[in-house]
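Run: sequence + iron/sulfur cluster -> complex structure.
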Amino acid sequence: MPATRITLEVDASVARAIAAAPADSCSADLAEAPWTFDSTPGYGPGSSSADPFPDVAPTQGELPADLRAASDDELDARIRAARQTLGDRVVVLGHFYQRDEIVTYADYVGDSFQLARAASEHPSAEAIVFCGVHFMAETADLLSGPDQRVILPHLGAGCSMADMASIDEVEECWEQLEDVFGPLDEPDAEGLVPVIPVTYMNSSAAIKGFVGRNGGIVCTSSNARTVLEWAFARGRRVLFFPDQHLGRNTAKAMGVPLEQMPMWNPRQPLGGSSEAELDDSRVILWHGFCSVHRRFTTAQIDKARAEHPGVRVIVHPECPMPVVDAADESGSTDVIRRAIEDATEPTTFAIGTEINLVRRLAAQHPQHTIFCLDPVVCPCSTMYRIHPAYLAWVLERLVAGETVNQIRVTGSVAEPARLALDRMLRAKP
Ligand code: SF4
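>> structure
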């Protein structure tokens, strides 16, 4: 399974763009090597850097000095050599939002769920190197074989949105809802329980396990509507976490009035709502968001329309509701990718999602004009922690017979988390 370099006519590298003009990015520190930030806990420079970082989040240890000093060409040679030695024993997965210097070595490139499925299709691979963020590696571990090892090249690659819903906060919320509605597992005369918990894929395995234990389900940005229909067939209302925007945008498109979507702020009693508001609710939205997609605004869309008459605006459903409403289309990363691939005439696209994917799509489709709605270069800071030096490190350690940065989900969490994922796979539109 050889790694292949993607050759593009246009330079898609966000890292090179930042190095050439750090002032055009959201943080001048993005031009620094990522190991500069490994000794300080945090998400690193970029769009998520100001979000609260959980105390319990793992941090990356020191990268060996020879890797920190290696040139791009040396790292390329070392990664290729390790891949060559390991052959089919390893599968390398690259998320759409990874930097191009990582994607170039991936056997599969996709969204988090596509990649977890790709991993499950290689049961004989000993190791799955997941170039993404922590919750993605956990999902891959849940869906892979018991003897397979899932490796995250940089332990600091968390997800600030996933971290906005901790298991303690969600369990506390569940107890408060039980105080309001009574036993949450008892169906009423119509066979509906008071609340069905629904978690976005972008959540920890502990949260997926909570959902599985409490009759709930996981969703992705591609199937959120189908999953909400599944939940409404079983419950009076839904508790949706961690991303308020995906929950609101999806429920609104299904006809749920905004007044019936109160927000749950975990730092306030009853999440900041009254008992009457909760009683009237259809979807209770957790107070979480993606710091990358929150940057998109309607003003950016107005500007794109003024400067590019006829522009097609497509945004991700993690964007705030006014942005989704003002766009021509919204959809998952895969929907965005396919919309561009399916366009038969040269088209101008303004895209509202992470910059690495937008620049790669622009380079892959030179017949179209494709640009990011946000003029500031601001990658997902956690994805950006994975630099080729860390990929070289984990692969070379595998060659040496050592597994570093393994991500494992333990039995008591894994079993209900798999149940929640399995319900999602079986939910039909
Ligand atoms: S883009 Fe947003 S949701 Fe995705 S990993 Fe980064 S912070 Fe998390």
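>> summary
The two ends are 36 Å apart (CA to CA). The longest helix spans residues 411-426.
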